[in-house]
Amino acid sequence: MARRIHLRTDIAVEDLEGRYRAAKEPHERSWWQILWLLSRGQKAIDIAESTGYSAYWIGQIAKRYNAEGADGMRNRQYTHSHRGQPLLSPALLAELAEAVRGPAPEGDEWLGRTVAAWIAEKLGRPVHVQLGWVYLVRLEGKRRKPRPRHVQADAAEQDAFKKRSARSSTRSRALSPTASSSSGPPTNIASG
Q1: pLDDT tens digits along 74-128
Q2: At what angle do helices 26-39 and 55-68 cross, to 10 degrees?
Q3: Separation of alpha carbons 109 and 101, rounded Å
Q4: Angle at 163 between CA 157 and CA 167, to 5 degrees
Q5: Three-class SS string for 81-142?
Q6: Which of 7, 8, 13, 32 could form a disulfide with 20 if both were Cys (CB 3.0 to 4.6 A apart)?
Q7: pTM of this prediction?
Q8: Which of 147, 136, 142, 127 is nearest to 104 (CA)?
Q9: So where are the chain's domains?
Q10: Does pLDDT of 143 surpass 60?
């Protein structure tokens, strides 16, 4: 024998019907319809036949309505984020951005490990190097180290080397044999 589901009585039956008819989101509309039908005295089994919801789910909708009221009848499908909360508050993020613009501690560059160490000091707990790199990229984009300049090299010698290497590469291309098939030994059609 099925039990009757009792609803809280802070909203009148006519108001439940009005919310059902005014709802725009399909799930919410169905939930308000279920609540309206329950408030009129229908059993969950009968409502399940007319709405397509299971009797169990009808009970869950009523349970949520009794616990949270009208606020519980919002579709939460798209409000749940699987992403964790940001580690740094906006104030700490602004402080980190200011710190990254200046010189790095110990005369080093701002790298993932230095940012992670800065965050760990502020939060008082260890922070992985990768997270430091993520925050560094978020703040200023990927930093690239400049290529080293050899002060011992003479500019004239460098130009001469570039010219020599360019000539030798064009000469080696000219001396290479023409492309031939490498799919097997050459065959002679006439000798057969």
Answers
A1: 887 776 666 677 788 899 999 998 888 888 887 777 888 999 999 999 999 999 9
A2: 90
A3: 11
A4: 145
A5: CCCCCCCCCHHHHHHHHHHHHCCCHHHCCCCHHHHHHHHHHHHCCCCCHHHHHHHHHHHHCC
A6: 32
A7: 0.43
A8: 136
A9: 13-73, 90-140
A10: no
